[in-house]
Design brief:
By secondary structure, the chain is an alpha/beta fold. The protein folds into two domains: 149 residues, Aspartate Aminotransferase, domain 1, CATH 3.90.1150; 234 residues, Type I PLP-dependent aspartate aminotransferase-like (Major domain) (Aspartate Aminotransferase, domain 2, 3-Layer(aba) Sandwich), CATH 3.40.640. Helix content is 37%, strand content 14%. Strand 5, helix 8 and strand 6 form a beta-alpha-beta unit. Helix 3 crosses helix 10 and helix 11 packs parallel to helix 13. It is globular, with a radius of gyration of 21 Å.
Length: 396
């Protein structure tokens, strides 16, 4: 049977590829500390479950294709508090941020087109881009520079006749890089000057640890036709399973095209939208407490990493990930060895090997992404296991 050449160019997620090895390790009685998946352990606010419980309509009907009015108004109100004002028609509800990304790519990319994305990047971007027939053109960064990419010369050197957009994750997954207002302005200006879209994947917006005000590429109203925002309740409210995201843009033509996809898939799940709308009633105290918790975890990881000889890692300023260069030859081999051969008192650890976060062949082989989504005692144990594993692996 013949399959699409586009789908055959897509790979499996590096965050999940070692699942069979993890199952085998657990069958041997091993306890695995998971730093590989960005699944927060923070409790979802009760408002979500209460709203679903109180849903009394006799028929669970299709929601409107753009989203239920209550959710769109809640999202609109959220941005109003940031000083960023959208009309209801600028907001489309999607099945998670993933569908918003997929819709955006389908609306702007054709066969042979390119999108600039700083590497390392969220690996699933590959799938969303490749199924359009386009490809990711990486903006190179290095761990030694803290994965910094907001540099005019660095970005413009990668623009060519095939470039259709620049996409950034801010705060960054997997790097934790947070753009300053000046850096966001620079990227928007480059997009305007070269007639490109600029896509801001901003699902980690709340997770900044230096006291910075919450920011968005959408704050630059002079770039209304260029900017596309991807948002979601998944990380913000620790509601990954709700699968509620948003595609937001003041570009009316883009939204009109995206609506074709919204109507084609009919609607996002009605009950998930009901619960998500209620989440936006959560107060600022919730976010302050969550930020404090993640900052403590980040600092724990950084302290532990600093004690491992040969690690290269700059302190991330946001999200809940650390990208680090380890003193091993190949983190894919290292991860498999940790699951098949290593244990300390019955325990081992998982991370996401770095090569899958790169578009440039051969890069990232000695890097890892660590998701600090475990409670403090488990996180400390996981980082100690990483240090013990490195030492034992290199002593083989």
């Amino acid at each position: 049977m013949k399959f699409s050449g586009k789908i055959e160019k897509c790979g499996l997620s590096p965050m999940r590829k070692f699942h069979p090895y993890a199952v085998a390790a657990e069958a041997k009685g091993r306890k695995i500390y998971h730093l590989n998946i960005g699944q927060p352990d923070i409790a979802t606010p009760p408002a979500f479950f209460e709203a679903v419980k109180n849903f009394k309509q006799p028929v669970l009907a299709y929601a409107p294709s753009p989203g239920i009015p209550e959710l769109i108004q809640a999202v609109k109100g959220y941005y109003d508090k940031l000083g960023i004002h959208f009309s209801s028609d600028d907001i489309l509800t999607t099945t998670g941020g993933s569908e918003a990304l997929e819709m955006a790519m389908e609306c702007i990319m054709d066969d042979g087109d390119e999108i600039l994305i700083p590497e390392p990047f969220y690996p699933n971007y590959n799938t969303f881009v490749r199924v359009t027939g386009g490809k990711i053109h990486p903006i190179p960064t290095t761990p030694e520079e803290g994965y910094h990419y907001a540099d005019r010369a660095k970005i413009e050197a990668e623009i060519n006749e095939h470039t259709r957009a620049i996409m950034v994750t801010n705060p960054g997954n997997p790097t934790g890089v947070v753009l300053t207002t000046e850096e966001m302005r620079l990227i928007v200006d480059i997009a305007k000057e070269h007639d490109l879209f600029v896509i801001g994947d901003e699902v980690y917006r709340e997770f900044v640890y230096g006291g910075e005000p919450l920011a968005s590429l959408a704050q630059f109203e002079d770039a209304a036709d260029n900017v596309i925002i991807i948002d979601s309740v998944s990380k913000r409210f620790s509601a990954c399973g709700a699968r509620v995201g948003m595609l937001i843009s003041r570009n009316k033509e883009l939204v009109s095209h995206a609506m074709k996809y919204c109507q084609g898939r009919l609607c996002s799940a009605t009950l998930d939208q009901v619960g998500a709308a209620a989440l936006y009633s959560v107060g600022s105290d919730y976010f302050s407490a969550v930020r404090d918790e993640y900052k403590l975890r980040r600092d724990t990881c950084m302290e532990k990493l600093s004690q491992i000889p040969g690690v290269v890692c700059k302190c991330p300023k946001g999200a809940f990930y650390i990208m680090a260069k380890l003193p091993v030859d190949d983190t894919d081999k290292f991860q498999r060895w940790l699951l098949e051969e290593f244990e300390d008192h019955g325990d081992t650890v998982m991370f996401a090997p770095g090569e899958g976060f790169y578009g440039t062949p051969g890069k990232g082989k000695d890097e890892v992404r660590l998701a600090y989504v475990l409670k403090q005692s488990d996180l400390e144990r996981a980082m100690d296991l990483l240090a013990l594993g490195i030492k034992a692996y290199n002593a083989r």
